[in-house]
Amino acid sequence: MSPSRYTSIKLKDYPKPMVRLVCSRCDRKGQYRKETLIDLHGPDVTMPDLLHLIAKCERHGKNGDVCGIRYGDLIPRGMTP
């Protein structure tokens, strides 16, 4: 089996000291210190997994009514969440 060409960034590789979250569905916003998140979840947690751990949204993972949480600093410029 060949390795996947798709990979997820790990928390230790996140480019900023603060991890910012925004939700396009409910206007929730928040920010966390990267070092605190590393202490809580470890440096090798992937960013998609971390998003699920942090969001704790009742919509997360449900069909038809999806959670809109995203990493604010990873949204491409010119796009609104």
Oligomer: single chain
- What Rg do the Cα atoms give? 14 Å
Number of strands: 3
Mean pLDDT: 81
**Low-confidence parts lasting 5 or more residues at pLDDT below 50?**
none
Shape: globular
Q: N- to C-terminal separation?
A: 37 Å
Compressed to H and E, one letter per element, the order equals: EEHHE
Provide the spatial order of strands within the biggest beta sheet. 2-1-3
User: Helices and strands: which structural class?
Assistant: alpha+beta
> How many individual domains?
1
* Strand percentage: 15-25%
Biggest sheet statistics? 3 strands, antiparallel
> Tally the helices: what do you get?
2
- DSSP helix fraction: 10-25%
Question: In summary, what is this structure?
Answer:
It contains two helices and three strands; from the N terminus they run ββααβ. With 81 residues, it is of the alpha+beta class. It has one domain (11-74).
What does this entry look like structurally?
There is one protein chain. With 81 residues, this protein is of the alpha+beta class. The chain has one domain (11-74). The chain has helices spanning 34-41, 47-55, and strands at residues 18-23, 29-33, 69-71. The model has no long low-confidence stretch (mean pLDDT 81).
Tell me the layout of helices and strands.
Layout: E1 18-23, E2 29-33, H1 34-41, H2 47-55, E3 69-71
Antiparallel strand pairs: 1-2, 1-3
Annotation keywords:
2 helices, single chain, 81 residues, alpha+beta
